[in-house]
Design goal:
By secondary structure, this protein is mainly alpha-helical. It has 3 domains: 64 residues, Winged helix-like DNA-binding domain superfamily/Winged helix DNA-binding domain (Arc Repressor Mutant, subunit A, Orthogonal Bundle); 69 residues, Arc Repressor Mutant, subunit A (Orthogonal Bundle), CATH 1.10.10; 145 residues, GntR ligand-binding domain-like (Four Helix Bundle (Hemerythrin (Met), subunit A), Up-down Bundle), CATH 1.20.120.530. Helices cover 65% and strands 6% of the residues. The chain is built from 13 helices and 6 strands. A hairpin with a 3-residue loop joins strand 2 and strand 3.
Length: 298
């Protein structure tokens, strides 16, 4: 089944979400929601879902849409698929070169294969990971493009300054509504992190859990511009965050902050939750700045 480059990119992203456990077996895949989350039109989303059905990853149910097949089991867990350690050193070297402006924004596969001494298969694996993490895309026609990310200390500070405006304000929106079932889902994940997840999960999984909390809270505003804006800045800073994945003990304080904010929202204390969110982001920024300076000094 022949597909376009865009459909291929969307398919890889959906597979990465399933393999990472962010979309579970049996889950329904909403075309409008995927189109919004991936910032594309619905047509390539439908094409990607049909392609994944052809591959046996999804199944289509009459008048109900597409669902993750209960028979689909990822060949590898996330830790194996996208290693955090030395298994993919070329990936981190490529990311570091891009962060330091050592390579151009648009390159060919041949250039990358020569620069990093990769086979075509190895390069495909690395580029697929970059696609799934939102900073690599295939150019129409020929070559690859690296997307803007937060590369500097100033950019990181600007991102957090922006977040300290939109996230607390989103909690105060008149349309803010936090369904109890979603509050329960968030609390279960936070409890899992405190019980064992902080020590057990990979840095990438911990990173995504943090993003998921903040993006879910801002989605309660029912203002799509808040949610889209936060997703975009999270995508821009994700690559930089790889530099500062160090002491896991810091996650305990962050998750406990998340629990307090969630409790305030559940109790209807939105003014208190908004203030606490702003303080939480301010502390997070200072911690990231210290860790970034330490990482660059190593």
């Amino acid at each position: 089944m022949k597909i376009s480059a865009l459909t291929e990119r969307i398919s890889l992203k959906i597979i990465s979400l399933i393999d990472a456990g962010e979309i579970l077996a049996g889950a329904h895949l909403s075309v409008p929601k995927l189109a919004e989350n991936l910032d594309v039109s619905r047509t390539p989303i439908r094409e990607a879902l049909m392609f994944l059905e052809h591959k046996g990853i999804l199944e289509q149910k009459l008048n109900r849409g597409f669902f993750v097949s209960n028979d689909y089991a990822p060949q590898k867990r996330e830790e194996e698929l996208v290693p955090d350690g030395p298994d993919l050193p070329e990936y981190y070297q490529l990311a570091e070169d891009w962060l330091q402006d050592k390579i151009e924004a648009e390159v060919t596969e041949l250039f990358l294969m020569k620069r990093y001494e990769l086979t075509k298969s190895q390069l495909s694996t690395i580029l697929a990971r970059g696609i799934s993490e939102g900073w690599v895309e295939r150019k129409q026609g020929y070559g690859w493009r690296f997307l803007p990310v937060a590369k500097t200390k100033a950019a990181l500070e600007q991102i957090f300054s922006f977040r300290m405006v939109i996230e607390p304000m989103a909690i105060l929106e008149p349309t803010f509504n936090a369904p109890q079932e979603k509050i329960n889902d968030i609390r279960r994940e936070l409890e899992m992190l405190l019980e064992s997840g902080i020590e057990r999960l990979s840095p990438t999984q911990l990173q995504m859990a943090g993003y998921r909390f903040h993006e879910t809270i801002i989605s309660f505003s029912n203002n799509p511009f808040f949610e889209i804006s936060l997703r975009n800045v999270n995508r821009m800073r994700r690559l930089m965050d790889y530099r500062i994945m160090d002491d896991r003990s810091r996650y305990y304080a962050e998750v406990k902050d998340h629990m307090r904010i969630l409790g305030m929202i559940e109790a209807g204390q939105r003014i208190e939750a908004s203030y606490t969110m702003k303080q939480h982001l301010s502390v997070a920024l200072e911690n990231k700045k210290r860790r970034r300076i330490s990482a660059e000094a190593e």
